[in-house]
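Hi V.,

You were right to ask for the full record rather than a summary. Here it is.
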Amino acid sequence: MNETFLIHIEIAGRRYPITIQRDKEEEMRAAAKQINQKILQYQSKYGTQLDTQDMLAMVALQLSVENLTWEDKHDTSPFEDKIRELNDELDKYLKDQ
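Predicted structure:
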């Protein structure tokens, strides 16, 4: 059984209580760490030109673009289609025997 529990994640200096499954804790903390690191990158690049909300928006945009790029590179649907096609051919062949 995978129980849920409450953790506190800090993002951009604010703490957020989040209820998660125990096996997701490490992933959740790593995600928060990644967000905070990207915020630090924007802070070092833009200083006080951007407020926290602007930096969070830029981080969200950056991570979303990275996610979409990753999804495009790891699209398995062409392989799944080919496997289905080959499976159908094999089924048809075996039925004819």
